[in-house]
Specification:
six-stranded antiparallel beta sheet, mainly beta, 233 residues, 2 helices, eight-stranded antiparallel beta sheet, 17 strands, Jelly Rolls, globular
């Protein structure tokens, strides 16, 4: 289940938490609040107005708020065809933030195939062709967060958290790339970091949230990846 997704392009990190929050909102290229409560549209209130189409996910109530439940089998949000020059094709400075509650460390592919390895990857958000043609991707692998980002020179950033994402508890996940260093955070605590230089490799892939299907391959070729779905709540 996810309550909010924020993608931000920022100029500099603020030290004060309040100032950072203001900067995030002001510079957000996409904010999917996921508070509509009904329908099949995830409204983007950020600068890009890139609304998403909700596929097979369900609206649920969490206290006084709304959230979107992903079933781990075929639920996802697609933001189709933003193109290489889209505001979502980010090249250098990036922040991704999600509020989520994870139900299981395995998705339904583990049950379908009998292999836990097959169901160990759950895609939270991706722009690119998994696993090689990636602009940016945030996933959970065996319960640990993983962030991948390809650079123009062919090198790759890969961050993996030391801690597992807690089950059935709301938590905050964030990635911050400031052009010099990439950091992965869980509930405000830094879990991994990696220095880098140069621009991120962009592509014309759609942004997918909560699941992954490979639109660049035939059905037969993409069988190994098309069940990489996020299971939450």
């Amino acid at each position: 289940m996810i309550k909010r997704i924020l993608i931000t392009v920022f100029i500099a990190l603020m030290m004060a938490q309040v100032a950072q929050a203001i900067a995030d909102e002001k510079n957000a290229v996409a904010i999917w609040e996921l508070n509509e409560g009904k329908g099949e549209t995830a409204v983007d209130s950020g600068a890009g107005k890139n609304n998403g189409v909700i596929h097979n996910a369900q609206w649920v109530q969490e206290g006084n708020e709304t959230a979107l439940y992903f079933n781990g089998e075929n639920s996802y949000i697609s933001v189709s065809g933003p193109g290489e020059k889209s505001i979502l094709s980010i090249t250098k400075e990036l922040k991704i933030e999600l509020n989520l509650k994870l139900e299981s460390y395995l998705n339904k592919k583990a049950s379908a195939t009998g292999s836990k390895t097959d169901g160990a990857t759950q895609m939270l958000l991706i722009k690119g062709d998994y696993p090689n043609r990636i602009n940016y991707a945030l996933s959970i692998v065996w319960g640990k967060l993983q962030f991948n980002m390809n650079l123009e020179d062919g090198s790759r950033i890969r961050l993996t958290s030391t801690s597992q994402v807690p089950l059935m508890k709301w938590c905050n996940v964030a990635v911050i790339c400031d052009g010099k260093e990439a950091k992965l955070l869980l509930n405000g605590r830094e879990e991994a970091e990696q220095a880098y230089s140069g621009k991120m490799a962009v592509n014309d892939s759609p942004v997918l949230i909560g699941g992954y299907h490979d639109s660049f391959k035939s059905e037969g070729e993409r069988i190994n990846y098309r069940y990489v779905f996020f299971k939450a709540c």
